[in-house]
Amino acid sequence: MKTLAIGAFAIATLAASAASAQNVPSNPGPVIPGVCSFSGERVLGTSTAGQALQSRMVQLYQEVQGELQPYATAIQTETQQLQQSAASLSEADRNSRIQALQTRDREFQQLQQTRANELRYTQSVQANAIDEAARPLVIAAYQERGCGVLLSGDAVAYINPAMDITDLVIQRLNAQLPTLSFNRMPVPAQPAQN
């Protein structure tokens, strides 16, 4: 279940980065003509599509947890039963049950890894869909504002808000892509390499 925690952490990180973007100094300094900034993290964290992505990923994560929990519980129960009855079993029976339990545990770990990969893949595909929708909006805002340089708002500690085109992009993205609707996606098979 550790790998599934990574997905939950990524979702929480997106939400936290969106919240931290609101801290701006009271005197942000002068507007530098031709210099703009844009935060892709803030788009993912605060746009309606980004929020729909976060919300749905939490739901999918919970669905996967619900699917995997019975397997984990059954393996744990069987392990306890085997430990309690080990002394009364013949060596052959004990070894047979241990091997069967190890096989089920490997299958469970493989299913767990498959579901974690599906969640990561699904999140990546949906985040890319938001990025693809936002990209022309970023270019349009860049041109409208007369930017000559576009800084990554995710890498700049502070910038005058008048130089940041992120809010404009989010506003337009919300109108163009108000939400996302998706399910967990299987990871495509990789072609065999020779």
Helix-strand category: mainly alpha
**Terminus-to-terminus distance:** 33 Å
SS element count, helices: 5
Low-confidence stretches at least 5 residues in length (pLDDT < 50)? Answer: 1-6
Number of strands: 2
Q: Please list the strands of the largest sheet in the order they lie side by side.
A: 1-2
Arithmetic mean pLDDT: 88
Describe what you observe in this structure.
The protein has 194 residues and is mostly helical. Helix content is 66%, strand content 4%. It has five helices and two strands. A two-stranded parallel ribbon has the order 1-2. Helix 1 packs across helix 2, helix 2 packs across helix 5 and helix 3 runs antiparallel to helix 4. The radius of gyration is 24 Å and the shape is elongated. It starts with a helix and ends in an 18-residue tail after the last helix. The N terminus is likely disordered.
Which key terms come to mind for this protein?
5 helices; mainly alpha; 4% strand; 194 residues; elongated; 2 strands; two-stranded parallel sheet
Helix-strand layout with pairing:
Elements: H1 2-20, E1 35-38, H2 40-46, H3 48-85, H4 91-144, E2 149-152, H5 166-176
Parallel strand pairs: 1-2
Brief write-up:
This protein has five helices and two strands, in the order αβαααβα. The protein is mainly alpha-helical. Helix 2 packs across helix 3.
